[in-house]
Amino acid sequence: xxxxxxxxxxxxxxxxxxxxxWRAAECDLHEVFGVDVEDRVLLQERxxxxxxxxxxxxxxxxxxLGLALRAG
Length: 72
What we know:
By secondary structure, this protein is an all-alpha fold. It is 62% helix and 0% strand. 14% of the residues are buried.
């Protein structure tokens, strides 16, 4: 039976943390959700909550953003 990896608790992530790692967030948004943050029409049609939900998901599992935030 495989042994589960221990869960490492992460400190609370702030908006500043995400903005400081925006390149990772931008790449993850595109790779995971197909979201082009340069698409102004799309982002104007979506709510802040829509973006927040996706960023929170990326913080927890994003290939780049989660790793960047855990590293530093």
